[in-house]
Design goal:
227 residues; mainly alpha; globular; disordered N terminus; disordered C terminus; transmembrane; Urease accessory protein UreH-like transmembrane domain-containing protein; UreH-like_TM_dom; membrane; transmembrane helix
């Protein structure tokens, strides 16, 4: 009976509207930042392409970013401590920028959370240190396509809406064991994603590793064909 009461109290039309607006802001923020990272990668590839070094440059970028993502995944599998990696990134220039942005906006949380301004709070999540977003942004950069970065990060935002919605409306607490399972699953995902980028980078140097047939391969393949 208590569980039913929690469902009834959580899933009012007002709560659904607020969480929908929050996730809308979050998804748009992910997509825009993904577009920026993709554009930055495209700029790098274009600049190096003019100098005739596109292929090795793509290989180096893919390998470096792939290794970084795999390290993130391994930290999860080896017993991730909440905030460990986020704390390191927060100390960088990007982290400081995110922290300042968060401070400015957080002062208005109480005013925004109960109105349409909650869209801004959702958008803020794209600027916060997050182990889920780091690999996604790096991946968009490695692909070197603003359109692809926009679509892939937008898809990430949409794909995580169910879990974020349930966590905010129904699941009020998560046990330590459940968090460990989530960290482990993310670790496996990150290692796999990192491997794909490393394999794609090594291909630029003639080293062939097994790769699944996935659409993520296309942006770099097309840029290579143009080069």
């Amino acid at each position: 009976m208590e569980t039913q009461d929690r469902w009834a109290s959580a899933l009012t039309l007002y709560e659904v509207r607020q969480h929908t607006l929050f996730n809308l802001g979050r998804t748009v923020s992910y997509a825009i930042i993904g577009c920026v990272f993709g554009a930055a990668g495209a700029l790098l590839y274009g600049t190096i392409g003019l100098a005739g070094f596109l292929r090795p440059a793509q290989g180096v970028v893919g390998i470096c970013i792939g290794v970084a993502i795999m390290v993130m995944g391994l930290t999860r599998l080896a017993g991730y401590q909440q905030g460990a990696v986020e704390g390191v990134v927060a100390g960088t220039g990007f982290g400081s920028l995110f922290a300042r942005t968060y401070t400015v906006i957080s002062r208005r949380v109480d005013r925004w959370v109960n109105g349409i301004g909650i869209i801004g709070l959702g958008a803020l999540h794209g600027l916060l240190p997050c182990m889920l977003l780091y690999p996604a942004f790096l991946y968009a950069f490695a692909q070197g396509s603003p359109v692809y970065g926009l679509l892939s990060l937008g898809a990430l935002g949409v794909g995580t809406i169910p879990s974020v919605f349930l966590y905010g409306t129904v699941i009020q607490s998560v046990s330590t064991r459940q968090r460990q399972v989530v960290h482990y699953g993310l670790g496996v995902l990150f290692v796999g994603l990192g491997y794909i980028l490393v394999a794609m980078g090594l291909m630029r140097f003639g080293v062939m590793l097994p790769l699944p047939d996935i659409p993520y391969y296309q942006p770099i393949a097309e840029s290579e064909a143009v080069a």
